[in-house]
Amino acid sequence: MMSVNELTIRRPDDWHAHLRDGSMLRAVAEWTARDFGRAIVMPNVVPPATTVSDAADYRQRVLDALPEGCDFEPLMTLYLTESTTPEEIDRAASSGFVKAVKLFPAGATTNSDNGVRDIDRVMPVLERMAETGMVLSVHGEVTDQDVDIFDREAVFVDQVLDPLRRRLPELRIVLEHVTSAHGVEYVLSADRNLAATITPHHLVLTRSHILSGGIHPHYYCLPVAKGPEDRKAIRCAAVSGDARFFFGSDSAPHPDAAKMRAAGSAGIFNAPTALACVAAVFEEEGSLDTLETFVAMSGPAFYNLQANSSRITLCRREHPVAIPERIMTEDGPVTIFDPGFALYWQVEGRDGQDNTTF
Length: 358
Ligand code: DOR
Ligand code: ZN
What we know:
α4 links the parallel β5 and β6 (135-138). The protein is globular, with a radius of gyration of 19 Å. By secondary structure, the chain is α/β, with parallel strands linked by helices. The chain has one domain (12-310): Metal-dependent hydrolases (TIM Barrel, Alpha-Beta Barrel). It contains twelve helices and 13 strands. α1 crosses α2 (52-65), α3 (86-95) packs parallel to α4 and α6 runs parallel beside α9 (228-239). Bound molecules: (4S)-2,6-dioxohexahydropyrimidine-4-carboxylic acid and zinc ion (ZN).
């Protein structure tokens, strides 16, 4: 087969990103905006964005953090709490800029304390979401400490997600950052209203990367990377062209000091290398032909949005692209995701502007 050195595709989007707030937001926003036209912006800032008014303010802070003239479009989310009202969902649905509501099981991950403890308590809200077509974005892990951390996604799928979908089949759900073969199989078993995002790091890592040859805090995130069979299933799903699987970086910056302490924070800052990593994986799998579907087409289709009208050109360089190890922020250095292999793909150019009007 002829090797491909240049690929022009629709401008990609990131369907799951943590852009943070304040000085961290100002340091990281441009990295997501560089390669992606839009991003679903996670609401687990401090305090969480629980209302449409919070999301509007946060959206403005994101826009203010972008470089001059940048046409990146932040797609906002609400942080679901047990106090969220169905009326808030109506406001979200008519806002135009809130595209999903995020379910964090309380205690599952970073800034999830205000999340949901008892799903029964949010049923009226979920029902309104099903009626209005608002997407539920799910962190799919149970929080029961008795469940092995490597099984928490599978147990969530069986004990929470499947019963919820049976109760409310019209609810449109994204199982975020799917990490297990079981999660992939479950998404494949659903003929509608269910999709999953896949991160660059879960396409690359297994738990051995985190735990073998010394402990690697910069490979630690939640859900934690699983075994080789799981990674194989995720790769297979990503390159398959199946519209139920699309790209979400889960780029989640933490200052290095927070990652390296005894109870280090979960999260991988991958925005600068995300697209190059995904391109490398697709190339390795012999599937560069489905890259555009994964990074630019299936996400907007699920969210009932148009794909970006502009295009980018990815070039495969002859020599590895030099990537900085970290960025400097007012909160200290933040390490950039290093997949452990050289990266050759780089965005060379873009044609056209995308619409940012609502
Ligand atoms: O590793 C993670 N980091 N997983 C999450 O679900 C949250 C994220 C964060 O906000 O740091
Ligand atoms: Zn996340």
